[in-house]
Amino acid sequence: MKNIVADMKLTDGVLRSFRVARTYRKNSSKVNCVDFSQNGENAVTSSEDDCIVLYDLLEGKPTGTLFSKKYGVDLIRYPHGDLETVVYSSNKLDDTIRYLSLTDNKYIRYFPGHTASSFDMTVRFWDLRSQNCQGLTSTQGKPICSFDPEGLIFAAGVESNAVDLYDLRAYDKGPFAHFETKFTHVCDWTRITFSNDGKQILISTNGGVIRVLSAFSGAVLHTFSGYNNSKRLSLEACFTPDSQFVMIGSEDGRVHVWSTENGMKVAVLDGKHPGPISSLQFNPRYMTFVSACTSTEELVLDWYREPEQSWDKDYDAFLLPLLTPQEPCYILYRLDSKNPQGYEWIFLAWSPDQSPVRQKMVYAATRATLKKEFGGGHIKDEIFGTVEDDLCFQGYLRHMSSCSSPAPISLAEQELQQVKVTETLQGLAFPLQEQAKRALQQLKQKRINYIQLKLDVERETIELVHTTPTQTQELPCRIPKDSPRYHFFIFKHSYQGQLQEALVFIYSMPGYTCSIKERMLYSSCKNRLLDEVERDYQLEVTKKMEIDSGDGLTEEFLYEEVHPMDHTLKQAFSKPRGSGGKRGNKHSIKGGGENGEES
């Protein structure tokens, strides 16, 4: 890496030449803060999965991960160039600021109260050598704060419309300067930052706009927009170390760069992020910057390889290097065989025991979506593994062998299978024969008033028996005594002085003279037949009934079934009158105790 001070100068062209050099996926959730060491050779990140990750930038690799599961971690910083400690705020429980030793992962000191600037409209000051608050000042609203490069002046952005400047040596006297600056966009200020030369103040917002002010007069020098932030995210903007440029990430994963000299946009860099860039910092000593995105939990292609030999010979050499001990993944491995849709594939889900629980949950919830998008017809086999032995070639052969062998079943499982067969029969739907369909059409047109149907068990169809015109008193004679049938009958009658017609469906099943198979088939086909009649023929069945014979199928019975009484008159219960009139003189009855005494 090049030392920015000694070797090169940042220009428009240099910024446009920046490319992604390294990508790290150490976190399962949003990286909420990035900070560089003063010598630019190290970096530290905090994230919402409660992780602190340390990086060696000269080697270009992470060197360690610490956890703050109980308290959470945010706004992490190296203090005074010390690489062995960090300070960060807790975003769980009590919002205490914590001073942590990186060498032994132990807390050196706590700074309780609230974060450095708080929703209680106060700003607190601490000295790392003491846990006691060294100073407190009140503001006119919820503040966001930042020190100038000299550490003598601090700025407080108040209520997203004003900047107050305080002298640390006389902060109790209030701000010595007050600048009001209102945005035309409706947005909240999320961060305030001084440039390294101390001449400019940068205001980040959760809208699609950022602003640069003069640190001396408060005048608006530049207002930058034209980047995506439709979701009103807190996107971090920063100055370059020479104070000549301002950078910010965007919702679409790109980095936008403007000149602070003329206000022109000089570059839009592809950060190759799958989600919005939430954190962005330029290295104070080297020609590099870091961007971190808010994970959108998208499935992305991480690696692929063309086949070299037959699938079985390539298997272990291709797959095993992809199985990392702490990161789940999906692997789609192509076989040499084909089906009508193309090549067949093996779907492998890798979820090692050491991986974070949240990652396991995300991958488990995404598996069905991936299979659907890829096309389930292409997937021949599916394997799930937590250790390498599950997914290696021998593991796959064991999986295939176990799948091809019939599993032994107990007597209880055999009974369960029979129950499932019976449940399946409830969903049978035999098709109607053409004669039966024509008869239903004629019934709809009221050209006939009676239809009798039966099941053809061999052909698995519903057949028409006859459509003999039938009067109500003739209906009992139409019910067979030795075989089940379906009947549709238009019941003509007078109700409340008006002539009415009601379509009645009768399912007749004569006792136990029929076989069990017939009883099950007729019972299971009944509902599907009625659904088809009402849906396809628009016949509204007024009453559905089941009988075992036609003996009781009288006109009076049909009338009562079609027009049941709304309620039955009941004799009102007369509550006995209490003794002694309306009130008082009532006797309380107590249970008798032993030997007739009151208990």
From TrEMBL:
Keywords, alphabetical: Actin-binding, Coiled coil, Cytoplasm, Cytoskeleton, Nucleus, Repeat, Transcription, Transcription regulation, Transcription termination, WD repeat
Example GO BP: lncRNA catabolic process
Coiled coil: 433-460
Classification via Pfam families: Cofilin_ADF (PF00241), WD40 (PF00400)
SUPFAM superfamilies, per database record: Actin depolymerizing proteins (SSF55753), WD40 repeat-like (SSF50978)
Gene Ontology molecular function: any one: actin filament binding
UniProt protein name: Twinfilin
Source species of the chain: Takifugu bimaculatus
